[in-house]
Amino acid sequence: IKAVVFAIAFAISLTEFSRKYISIEEVIMSDCMQNPIKSKNCLTNTYQSADVSVPVSVRPKVNTGKPITFCCGEPTVTPSSCRIVCNDYDCSSGTCKYTITQKVCIEVPIEFGADATVGCPCIICGDVTTDICTDC
After folding, report:
1. Which of 52, 81, 96, 126 is least enclosed by beta carbons within 10 angstroms?
2. Does position 17 have pLDDT exceeding 80, yes or no?
3. pLDDT at 29 over 90
4. Alpha-carbon Rg of the chain, whole angstroms?
5. Which of 107, 103, 83 is nearest to 95 (CA)?
6. CA 68/CA 54 separation, integer angstroms
7. Angle at the Cα of 40 (from 35 to 41), degrees rounded to 5?
8. Mean of the pLDDT values across residues 29-40?
9. Full 3-state SS string of the chain
10. Using an 8 Å Cβ cutoff, are 124 and 51 in contact?
11. Inter-residue long-range contacts of 112-116, CB under 8 Å, 24+ positions, other chains counted
12. Rounded Cα–Cα distance for residues 53 and 57 (Å)
């Protein structure tokens, strides 16, 4: 009974398939109206040797993230060597100077990558035969 049910279901599916899709013979006929080929004919393969080239351009790209700074140890303060600083006209407007030095470690995240684009391909045709290409 299972085999009969399967056979009926298969026949219904095949009928629905043939309503929705055209046969391979119809495809061949529509593409080759001048020389129609039946799908039951012999099949012949041909082989074309060729050199195919395409120019490729690679452009590098680099993105940096936000740097993070870490302090290493304590800062060092160095006073200016000139303790009295005055300008030529008014000694009350002098400026005190000193140098502060801090050893730091800076994390700089950097992302490296590249974009590639291709140009128009070209082909140099070789021989065409019914034998598989021998120089592959």
Report:
1. 81
2. no
3. no
4. 41
5. 83
6. 43
7. 55
8. 55
9. CHHHHHHHHHHHHHHHHHHHCCCHHHHHHHHCCCCCCCCCCCCCCCEEEEEEECCEEEEEEEEECCCEEEEEEEEEEEECCCCCCCCCCCHHHCCCCEEEEEEEEEECCEEEEEEEEECCCEEEEEEEECCCCCCC
10. yes
11. 112/60, 112/61, 112/62, 113/60, 113/61, 113/62, 113/63, 114/58, 114/59, 114/60, 114/61, 115/58, 115/59, 115/61, 116/56, 116/57, 116/58, 116/59
12. 13
Q: Which two tokens stand for residue 54?
A: 């395409």
Q: Token pair 């009295």 is at which residue? A: 84
- Mean pLDDT for 104-122 is 96
Q: Residue written as tokens 């990558």?
A: 113
